[in-house]
Amino acid sequence: MIKANTLKKGNIVDIGGQPHQVKDMEVQTPSARGSNTLYKVRFTNVVTGQKLDQTFKGNDTLEELEMERRPVSFIFRNQDMYTFMDSENFEQYTLGEASLEGKTEWLVEGLEEITALLLNGRVMAVELPASIDLEIVDTAPALKGASATNRNKPATLSNGMTVLVPEYLTPGEMIRVNTETGKFMSRVKS
């Protein structure tokens, strides 16, 4: 059992006999005395992909499901199906695009450090690494003296995504991007 006030993004709990993963949490602290802190949690049903919003008090308990965590790497995409390979026993798992909501744009062939969450031997979801390194393929030219400013410009990355990067970066450079927010983190030294 896990208390609502200790839930974290990524936890998987049983709600109505179905596995649900915590996607987002919002803490509301009422100003009235004696009021309980409320935890608004957005879950995603791991099997169906359906969203569920629920509110809990801090001491409410939920049953946490024990999921087997396996290291996998992304190997290829076939239409709307994504195939991952277990890094230890080389078993392959396939997930549909609906199960990977918000993650598909960061899946590049050969991406490692992905964790597959299995329940009863069946892959339910994957967790991406916190950040990935991608190459800038197109952006405006670097401006002389731009390192002294704090302005950003759009840059197209090797996966097709566009992120805002500092003005001093040029095409061909590698950068680190946060997979959760989709924002530039740092330049990768080669």
Automatic annotation (TrEMBL):
Every Translation elongation factor P/YeiP central domain range: 69-124
Q: Name one GO cellular component term.
A: cytosol
Q: Which Gene3D superfamilies match?
A: 2.30.30.30, Nucleic acid-binding proteins
Its signal peptide is: none
| Key words, A-Z | Elongation factor, Protein biosynthesis
Q: GO molecular-function annotation terms? A: translation elongation factor activity
Q: Which biological process annotations from GO are given for this protein?
A: peptide biosynthetic process
Domain named Elongation factor P C-terminal: residues: 132-187
SUPFAM superfamilies the record matches = Nucleic acid-binding proteins, Translation proteins SH3-like domain
- Pfam family name, one: EFP
State the family named in the UniProt similarity comment for this chain.
Belongs to the elongation factor P family.
Protein name per the record: Elongation factor P-like protein
